[in-house]
């Protein structure tokens, strides 16, 4: 078959719904290679007259992690779409950016061994979107791997992934205030917070620093070395106590993808501060002005502050609300944005950008309803051409769950979605649709060929 010839649309949709494997690599050799890369980076900084980076240490190989992850390309696209739903922060961003993950519809395909790699179209896309592709594909796989690891550790919990920048903006300004460059630690952040939660119980939280590269494994080592500085910028509780994952996705041009992962195991629980009631997830938040510094205890219990972001124990209730409402905002943005999204964001997080319901280039959003796998979903759709044929893509949320979030009922949403966590269909296609992905948060992403 001619690799340069465009595929039939039906063939593309079939590939999007075909599960393939992605290698997961975690070893003591990876630990050593990352430590060596960090040391080399710091030596170079010293030669250039700069300080060494502040880094988290204590990372190790992930114990008990599976050697591979099995997903369809469409499930990866779904993860990318959720991860970027709030990134542009604007209902006026238009359909092109709302559906930015669709650029990867032909980028990934299974090889003869059943492992995912870049397709010929993905290699062509690489020429134009190299930085975006490595970052977004890397974050998609990082979220899937992190979710798998945390679910295995806490099987009686639900697991949510929240973009770190969105969560932090509720308490800190991440923008420069025009007084020169900000200290380096304030310019770095992890990619996600992962929250393991159960209704009525305090959440457990950890950090994920995500990287992606089209380079070799040695480039992954360098990226993960830098990632140790990204997780050092954020602390929940005492300095250095919050657990983290370092995840680097290797995306070779012509070989199968591999995800490299390390962890610093621990457990940080967002226990209410003594005398405080349980967190009210339905509480509307306004911006806080937290100090951008971290308390560090040194020799002889001497304490000093360094630049960074720290959620202190007396703010654990507040941060629990931040995480839950940022997840709600992500899901509402994924269904189409507008006012239902704005209610969950502070001004600094982008509330004003979502106050208008209409996206550029469309007359309405959240007006699409489809029954998939016997479940009613509400969301928005997009009709476009894929290799000359018309297709419809749909992103949405189960209708009952959507109603909860539309009306600001985060606690009700969490109670219901937690009860349903083991009941979602796992089929990769559905009647009258092509590829379908349904996630435990109740969101769906589906695509189908339309009759001409």
Description:
With 452 residues, the protein is an alpha+beta fold. The protein has one domain (17-340). It is built from twelve helices and 20 strands. The chain has helices at residues 9-16, 28-47, 73-83, 95-98, 120-153, 164-168, 184-187, 217-232, 316-335, 339-342, 399-406, 410-419, and strands at residues 20-25, 60-61, 68-71, 108-110, 116-118, 158-163, 192-197, 204-213, 234-236, 244-250, 258-264, 268-269, 293-297, 303-307, 309-311, 368-372, 375-386, 389-398, 436-438, 443-449. The strands form five sheets. Strands 1, 2, 3, 6, 7, 8, 10, 11 and 12 form a nine-stranded mixed sheet that branches. A hairpin with a 5-residue loop joins strand 13 and strand 14. Helix 3 (73-83) packs across helix 5 (120-153) and helix 11 (399-406) packs antiparallel against helix 12. The longest helix has 34 residues, at 120-153. The radius of gyration is 22 Å and the shape is globular. The protein starts with 8 loop residues before the first helix and ends with a strand. 47% of the residues are buried.
C-alpha termini separation: 26 Å
What composes the largest sheet? 9 strands, mixed
The percentage helix is 25-40%
Described by the principal axes of the CA atoms, the overall outline is: globular
Count of strand segments? 20
Question: Poorly predicted ranges (pLDDT <50, ≥5 residues)?
Answer: 360-364
Gyration radius, to the nearest Å?
Answer: 22 Å
Number of helices: 12
What fraction strand? 15-25%
- The secondary-structure class comes to alpha+beta
* Mean pLDDT level: 91
Number of domains: 1
């Amino acid at each position: 078959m001619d690799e340069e010839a465009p595929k039939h649309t039906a063939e593309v949709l079939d590939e999007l719904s075909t599960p393939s494997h992605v290698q997961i690599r975690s070893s003591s050799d990876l630990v050593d290679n990352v430590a060596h890369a960090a040391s080399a980076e710091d030596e170079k900084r010293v030669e250039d007259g700069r300080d060494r980076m502040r880094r988290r240490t204590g990372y190790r190989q992930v114990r008990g992690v599976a050697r591979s992850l099995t997903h369809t390309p469409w499930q990866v696209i779904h993860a990318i779409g959720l991860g970027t739903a709030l990134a542009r922060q604007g209902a006026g961003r238009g359909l092109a950016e709302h559906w930015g993950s669709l650029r990867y519809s032909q980028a990934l395909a299974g090889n003869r061994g059943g492992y995912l790699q870049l397709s010929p179209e993905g290699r062509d896309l690489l020429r134009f979107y190299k930085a975006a592709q490595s970052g977004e594909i890397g974050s998609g796989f990082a979220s899937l791997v992190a979710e798998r690891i945390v679910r295995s550790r806490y099987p009686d919990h639900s697991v949510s992934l929240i973009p770190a920048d969105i969560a932090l903006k509720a308490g800190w300004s991440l923008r420069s205030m025009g007084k020169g460059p900000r200290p380096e630690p304030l310019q770095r952040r992890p990619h996600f917070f992962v929250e393991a939660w159960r209704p009525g119980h305090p959440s457990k939280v950890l950090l994920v620093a995500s990287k992606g590269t089209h380079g070799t494994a040695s480039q992954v080592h360098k990226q993960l070395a830098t990632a140790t500085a990204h997780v050092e910028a954020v602390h929940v509780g005492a300095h250095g106590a919050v657990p983290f994952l370092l995840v680097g996705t290797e995306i070779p041009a012509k070989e199968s993808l591999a995800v490299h992962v390390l962890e610093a195991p621990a457990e940080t629980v967002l226990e209410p501060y003594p005398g405080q009631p349980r967190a009210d997830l339905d509480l509307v938040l306004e911006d806080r002005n937290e100090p951008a510094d971290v308390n560090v205890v040194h020799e002889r219990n001497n304490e000093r502050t360094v630049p960074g972001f720290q959620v202190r124990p007396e703010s654990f209730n507040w941060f629990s609300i931040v995480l839950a409402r940022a997840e709600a905002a992500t899901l509402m943005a994924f269904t189409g944005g507008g006012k239902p999204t704005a209610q969950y964001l502070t001004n600094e997080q982008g509330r004003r950008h979502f106050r208008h319901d209409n996206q550029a280039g469309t007359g309405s959003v959240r007006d699409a309803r489809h029954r998939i796998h016997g479940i009613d979903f509400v969301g928005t759709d997009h009709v476009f051409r894929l290799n000359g044929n018309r297709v419809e893509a749909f992103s949405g949320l189960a209708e009952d769950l959507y109603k909860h979030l539309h009306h600001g009922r985060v606690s009700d949403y969490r109670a219901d979605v937690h009860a349903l966590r083991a009941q979602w269909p796992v089929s990769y296609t559905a009647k009258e649709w092509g590829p379908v992905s349904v996630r435990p948060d109740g969101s769906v992403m589906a695509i189908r060929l339309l009759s001409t």
